[in-house]
Amino acid sequence: MKYCKVITMAALLFMICSAFSFPFFKTPSHKVFGFGVAASFKDTVVYFTEIQEIDSAIVDSKGFLKSRPAYSEQLKTFMNENMKQEHTTCMIYFAKDKEKLQKTEAKLRKIYKKDKSVSIQSIALSQFHFIKTANTSDESVTVE
To answer: Of the candidates 90, 101, 86, which has an alpha carbon nearest to the alpha carbon of residue 128?
Structure first.
């Protein structure tokens, strides 16, 4: 009976300690932040969206954002329909760390500001935001 109590206490202590140390017990951060850039060779205005959390975005094991062409297409559609810019090239920049992404955005803005003929226009979050895309690997759907 004495050994049963000792073994039970040791097992309980092991389970409690291991719950805090094993990585599979930790909930991973699923936040992905991104911003879009739209530029055209026919126009001198470069459009930047605000940095935003991209809902349900997935970064694969190689560090690529799944469905990134769909996110770029969302920005292109917005530019065509709302801003009347038909010939834009749209890019999405993303990171799991918002501060890292802010540095990337600042670098990109600095590059465009060097060219005095280019003007930068911001697109507010109230005007445009990325939405959840349908991935082929899961059952997610596009929602607004």
So the answer is: 90
Contact 101, 94 (CB under 8 A): yes
**Nearest 5°: CA angle at 71, between 131 and 90?**
135
| DSSP class of 54 | -
Instruction: Encode pLDDT of 63-88 as tens digits.
Output: 888 888 999 999 999 999 999 988 89
Question: Is residue 52 in a domain?
Answer: yes
For 112, residues 6+ apart whose C-beta sits below 8 A from its C-beta are 46, 118, 120
Q: How far apart are CA 86 and CA 59, in angstroms?
A: 29
Phi first, then psi, for residue 52 (nearest 5°) are: -145, 155
Residue 133 inside a domain? The answer is no
Number of domains present in the structure of the chain: 1
Strand pairing report for 45-49 and 119-123: parallel
CB atoms within 10 A of CB 131: 14
Residue 130 lies in a domain: no
Q: Which residue has the tokens 């599979």?
A: 24
